[in-house]
Design a protein that fits this description.
Layout (H helix, E strand, L loop, with lengths): L2 H14 L7 H30 L11 E7 L5 H8 L17 E7 L2 E7 L14 H6 L6 E7 L5 H10 L2 E3 L6 E5 L5 E5 L8 H10 L5 E5 L5 H8 L3 E10 L6 H11 L4 E2 L8 H11 L2 E6 L12 E4 L4 H8 L3 H4 E7 L8 E3 L9 E7 L2
Parallel strand pairs: 1-3, 1-4, 4-9, 5-9, 7-8, 9-10, 11-15
Antiparallel strand pairs: 2-3, 6-8, 11-12, 13-14, 13-15
The chain binds guanosine-5'-triphosphate and magnesium ion.
Magnesium ion (MG) binds next to α3.
Length: 366
């Protein structure tokens, strides 16, 4: 049996099996087999296509962070890119106007945020309909995904599902589970919380699907079978915001009803009529968790007017790289004043993690 037949056989079996306490372990095992086979299928396809065409559009990240638009055709993604940035992405009444990735740069509160407009996707995109998979893959390199909907097609769940199918987890934390392979001794499971969603036996079964027969597993969180499989696969975790476009075409009652129906927060906007665009910029900026670093020349005064903007958890090295490509080669040490150090003027190395409003002096080699 080839991989596609095996995948079909497992899907058929999952379909037939009723989900209850007695079948939990069996279903979990099938999910693991399916996850592994799906990846193997993708890898073999990728080998056939070759590196040149690849699985994703080629986009170079630039700016302080990258935001990607994912949405159905004609919801107004390109119109929105044009209103947030000075890009000129083609817009039109018909579907599939955008055929490739179109970048733009949004400046907000001194941060430069790269925004990537993409072709629209439809349900089934993750299984290779149209350009679907290549479009979705761009989200792998994003710091934030904007799920762009319009008031007449408010189905964000389909978008999440399509991203999920290619291994992108939206608004989820990586599971707090560690699997350390060992050379002998079988599988030892150390649970630090009471497991309700998964059993130790299922954990062992899933590991065996992945040919892991010796390992130390530390479970610090009550995970589902799917989350445990995620630990073994290469998943990407990205945050999202929902944007609801074309609100100029409906009244407030319509928006309120929509809010009741989809039960999850969204930002109502009109890209075309410029409604709430500033609020959206704020929301993007706030979700990206930027911090401000005030640079201070050696023996000089900190520059409080023009902070350097960087992502939360940035190291001194990340800041060096933002200033100049060669900076890290000239780096001797840094001095920091602020929340990330015990006392002002503390000497730190390149791996020191900075916090919001730290003052930083970089001392170069002579
Ligand atoms: N009324 C109204 N129309 C809008 C709004 N934003 C976009 N449109 C219109 O919707 C149509 C589609 O807009 P695009 O920006 O091309 O949509 P898209 O999502 O980029 O479409 P694809 O590239 O085909 O996926 C165009 O006719 C726009 O003028 C809006 O806020 N209100
Ligand atoms: Mg477009």
């Amino acid at each position: 049996m080839g991989i596609p037949e095996k995948i079909k056989a497992i899907k058929d079996e999952m379909h037939k099996t009723q989900i209850n306490k007695a079948t939990e372990r069996h279903i979990g095992l099938l999910k693991a087999k399916l996850a592994k086979l799906t990846r193997e299928q993708d890898e073999s396809k990728q080998r056939k296509v070759g590196k040149v065409k690849g699985e994703s559009f080629d986009v170079r990240r630039s700016g302080d962070a990258t935001v990607v638009f994912i949405g159905f055709p004609s919801v107004g993604k390109s119109t929105l890119l044009n209103s947030l940035t000075n890009a000129k992405s083609k817009t039109a009444k018909y579907q599939f106007t955008t055929l490739t990735v179109v970048p733009g740069m949004m400046e907000h509160r001194s941060a430069k945020i790269q925004i990537l407009d993409l072709p629209g996707i439809i349900e089934g995109a993750s299984s290779g309909k149209g350009l679907g998979k290549r479009v979705l893959s761009v989200a792998r390199n994003a710091d934030l995904v904007l799920l762009v909907l319009d008031v007449f097609h408010p189905n964000h769940i389909v978008l999440r599902k399509e991203l999920r199918n290619i291994g992108i987890r939206i608004d989820e934390q990586p599971p707090n589970v560690i699997v350390e392979k060992t050379s002998s001794g079988g599988i030892g499971v150390n649970t630090q919380v009471k497991l309700m969603k998964i059993s130790e036996n299922l954990i062992k079964d899933i590991l065996r699907v992945y040919d892991i027969n010796n390992a130390r597993v530390i479970v610090r969180e009550d995970v589902t079978d799917e989350q445990f499989i995620d630990v073994l696969e290469d998943r990407t975790y990205v945050r999202s915001l929902i944007v609801m476009n074309k609100i100029d075409l409906v009244n407030q009652d319509f928006i309120n009803e929509l809010q009741d129906k989809i039960k999850i927060d969204f930002i109502p906007i009109s890209a075309d009529s410029n409604i709430n665009i500033e609020a959206l910029k704020e929301a993007i900026f706030n979700t990206l968790n930027f911090i401000r670093i005030y640079m201070r020349p050696k023996n000089g005064k900190p520059d409080y007017d023009q902070p350097l903007i960087t992502r939360n958890d940035s190291t001194v090295l990340a800041v060096c790289n933002k200033i100049h490509r060669n900076m890290k080669n000239e780096f001797r040490y840094a001095m920091v004043w602020g929340k990330s150090v015990k006392f002002g003027g503390q000497k730190v190395g390149m791996n020191h993690v900075l916090l919001d409003e730290d003052v930083l002096t970089i001392v170069k080699k002579l």
